[in-house]
Amino acid sequence: MSFDRRCFLTSSLTVLASVSKPQAAANEAKSGAGPGGVGCLIDTTLCIGCRQCEDACNRRNSLPRPVTPFRSKEVFSTVRRPTSAAFTVVNAYADPPSADQPRRRETFVKKQCMHCIDPACVSACIVGALSTAEDGAVVYNSDICIGCRYCLIACPFQIPAYEYHEPVSPRVRKCEFCTDLSAGFGANPACAAACPTEALTFGSRIRLLEMAHARIRQRPERYEDSVYGEFEVGGTRWLYLFGRPASELGLPSLPEAAPPRLIESIQHGIFRYAAVPIALYTLLGCVMLRNRRRRGLQEPASDAATKPAVHIE
Ligand code: SF4
Ligand code: SF4
Ligand code: SF4
């Protein structure tokens, strides 16, 4: 096959493949368990900030041991977010002093991927490297990831982390809900299994919501009258009960509508309308390259014709 034809075919196929992938990613976003499936309830009023969940997560995912040991409380001086070496982190937020509780206390809030029901990261991924598993967990396939990092930008909770330090094959890293362990609702994720105070409860999302609302009804003085994650961005699989407003505890105020719809339409628009110009530019690039190569081959002959003859006396 000639250089021109091979180049043109390759570029066209690449473009066509890239056009069809957003649709595949969009379909993945709509698959999964819908509002059912797995979930985990975090009752922050029971959390003591022991960080055993962080420790268990790192062990489960073969992540490096941190420089500051897990038992250390030094980390609470800053607000952290998950990284490629820590899929879950616990942050501390000082409670305002009150008349009946003059000693200033803290509320501890565990943070990880929220496993959104309609995940923005899945919709943003143009190759389908992020997808929703059967039980609803949002999982990642590093084999097909191209490292575009759209998922990092799309996530409303700023969760996915990128292995910038990996020169050869960097991956996107985040909590995957210990999918292999939790499949079939049979076992707890490592963090929930390690929690000594039952601040973390794993199970069916629908049952967890019932449990959360029952706790609010039974102890209205203890809890805010809402479950964070029930409706935010279309609902999430990690759900929170708080004794203080969520906005004071590092969780963003988000609309009920899922962002994927907007992201999908923008991305699909870009890819649909950019396909033809990209193919054209690639073709022109190939033609220019071919012409330059041909010129390169002809140049010595034309040089010889224009150079003055060398006379040997
Ligand atoms: S929290 Fe972010 S990374 Fe996790 S599923 Fe939702 S959009 Fe994706
Ligand atoms: S579910 Fe598994 S991966 Fe996710 S935070 Fe818990 S231990 Fe880590
Ligand atoms: S293991 Fe349980 S109590 Fe300890 S920090 Fe994690 S969520 Fe809180």
Write a brief caption for the model.
With 313 residues, the protein is of the alpha+beta class. 37% of the residues lie in helices and 12% in strands.
Keywords:
alpha+beta; 8 helices; 9 strands; globular; disordered N terminus; binds iron/sulfur cluster
How would you describe the overall organization of this protein?
- The protein is of the alpha+beta class and 313 residues long.
- It has two domains: 1-30 and 260-299; 31-258, Alpha-Beta Plaits (2-Layer Sandwich).
- It is built from eight helices and nine strands.
- The chain has helices spanning 3-30, 52-60, 120-124, 150-154, 179-182, 190-194, 205-218, 260-306, and strands at residues 38-43, 89-94, 106-111, 130-132, 138-140, 161-162, 172-173, 200-204, 238-241.
- The strands form four sheets. It has a three-stranded mixed beta sheet. Strands 2-3 form a two-stranded antiparallel ribbon. Strands 4-5 form a two-stranded antiparallel ribbon.
- A hairpin with a 5-residue loop joins strand 4 and strand 5 (138-140).
- Helix 1 packs antiparallel against helix 8 (260-306).
- The relative contact order is 0.18.
- The chain binds iron/sulfur cluster (3 copies).
- One iron/sulfur cluster is lined by residues 47-53, 90, 108, 110, 194-195, 197, 199-200.
